[in-house]
Amino acid sequence: MITLYSFPSSRSLRAAWTLEELGLDYVCRHVDLKTGEGQGESYLSLHPDGKVPALVDGDLTLFESAAICRYLAERYGEPGSLLPASVEERALVDQWLFFIIGELEQALWTQGKHKFALPQAQRVPAVLPTAAWEFQWALKALERRFDGEGWLVSDHFTLADLVLAHTLSWAVTFKNRLPESLQAYRERCEARPALARAVARESAAAEPA
Ligand SMILES: N[C@@H](CCC(=O)N[C@@H](CS)C(=O)NCC(=O)O)C(=O)O
After folding, report:
1. Residue 63 C-alpha to ligand 1 middle, in angstroms?
2. Do 41 and 3 form a contact (C-beta atoms < 8 A)?
């Protein structure tokens, strides 16, 4: 059995979206970050930092959203679907995943941390313009390699597109400017029915029993 530990509008959506793209059966278990459940002893035994997502599949427990998506696609995906069939194209998917997490997301997360995620006393609003500048810098690097037409790797939607679309949606939520081409690409990815199902699963899990 697969269990995803999630919280709506967080990075766990990447994992839920991947599970839905793959058509897998899974339990979606809400972790109430707002009441501090993440820092409870029980959840810390799954995720050492008390964050979401975490995934349990049989004897395997995994944390880190990109690693979870990568595992699910490799373990359960048809070769040539979320992960391309060739080693070279899979390496390109990994290249984009590391770039998205290490470059694009970091600048965004600095914004998120200093706008709402850190305890009030630790927030430094003065860093926000620098983080916005850093995000635009990383976006330019993306645009040099990808104009928003087609897909990041290969001729179809892959895991690289899923994680990029999710990250670009955060960019918009945090009020960063996206070029029209990437905005259209993001909307194309977000129109996938699997994403709507994933959002619904995470919301339903958060409903009181
Ligand atoms: N690099 C991690 C980051 C995970 C992370 O920071 N998750 C946030 C939600 S998006 C979280 O659980 N924060 C804990 C909290 O807010 O208490 C990943 O991609 O999974």
Report:
1. 10
2. no
Peptide bond before residue 125 is cis, with ω within 30 degrees of 0: no
Confidence (pTM): 0.97
- In this structure, are 14 and 93 located in the same domain? no
29-85: pLDDT as tens digits: 999 999 999 999 999 999 999 999 999 999 999 999 999 999 999 999 998 999 999
> How many distinct structural domains can be found in the chain?
2
Same domain, 63 and 133: no
Tens digits of residue pLDDT in 172-198: 999 999 999 999 999 999 999 999 999
CA of 65 to the centre of ligand 1 (A): 9
Domain match, 102 and 72 both: no
The answer, yes or no, to whether any atom of ligand 1 lies below 6 A from the CB of 33, is: yes
Tokens of 73: 């696609």
Name the residue range of residue 179's domain. Answer: 87-191
Assess whether 92 and 116 both reside in one domain: yes
Q: Which atom of ligand 1 approaches the CA of 49 most closely? A: 14
Report the CATH number that the domain containing residue 21 is assigned in CATH: 3.40.30.10
